[in-house]
Structure prediction request, 416 residues.
Amino acid sequence: MARQKISAGVLETLPAGQSVFDTTVLGFGARRQTEGGDVTFFFKSKYPGTQKQVLVTIGKYRRGDWTLAEARAKAAELRHMVKRGIDPMAERKAAAAAMTVSELCAAYLSDASAGVLGGGVGREKKPSTIATDASRIEAHIKPLLGKLTVPAVTSADIETFLRRVAAGDTAKALVAGRGRGARGGKGTATRTVGLLGAIFTYAVKKKLRADNPVRGVARYKDQRRERRLSVDEYRQLAAGLAATEQAHPVAAACVKFLALTGWRRGEAVNLKWKEVELTRRTATLGDTKTGRSMRPLAHAALAALGAVPRRAGSPWVFPAATGEGAIGSLPKAVARIRKLGGLPADITPHTLRHSLASQASDLGLSEAAIAGLLGHKLGSITSRYVHTADAVLLAAADKVADAVQELMDGKKPDAA
Prediction:
């Protein structure tokens, strides 16, 4: 095998099927298995006075794992251990055997918060997603799996976990007045097992176990996106909004805005006036789930914004009732509107989003137009609408919002 000082240039031009050893740290090497594949750092040596070899894979180059300097430093550490007769793999296995699922979850959340998951675990997570993950870990994962060691978890354990969460074994009552609790059910079970899959993918990446026990476990069909408002429920929503407007005008306006636009809850809650161009009827959102996004604003949606009391000096379109921040009690407001309108408990802000998308489809709008309205990342569709809301998209926004407003006004939809 070739031996030379490993540099960035050497790594970038390393041919497929070849390895190179470093002249700076003996035993430190890099290899590329396939054409266009990743370069992997490794350490290979022998224990002093023996023919017993040690081979440790350090990690991949520039793929969320290791820089050249970090890998060389790790190799130097491994070389020092081997010279002292210490088996680095034995130490790694011992550490993995001692780590519990609770400790693994803590490490996962720490790296997620630092934005360094990488390694195929997924793209960088937003703080709101990390908070949801932490809540599911505390409510469901730690009570049922937290004391098991990482290598001991089997697919049978995951299947049992799925059934127990679905049966409500980890469900907790909501705290009165605070909206906190933990729900069970098949949807919660499926989503939490999905999180477990990501956590054990992280464990595999960290060499804490060789496989992912979640892989192959059949989950319940998640039907949370299939719920849409009926004609009667739109009328009930309007009644709940009307009963809320006087005491809580900002909350009522925000919920109505969601119903007329199909935006994600966080997008509306965090909307600032500087992002809104009233004359062009657009809003430019800099940090959505799919990146920067420009959305059309229907006339009906602008009317909902016009009902919001403007607070001097506040940047928020929907400011909090007290303090200087944005509205922070929207789930509580939705619950109040549901109760006053006589709506079922499964109506959420996401139901409003899915309902608007369904209305758009019923009206015959194209998939591209619906993607532009909702901020979906659909191939090249998002890029088409990210810089400008053209007349076609504004007309589509008006068409759907007007249909939703008519339903709330008690008018039946036109026959297909």
Summary: Strands lie at 2-3, 18-21, 28-32, 39-46, 53-60, 172-175, 180-182, 276-277, 282-288, 291-296. The longest helix spans residues 186-205.
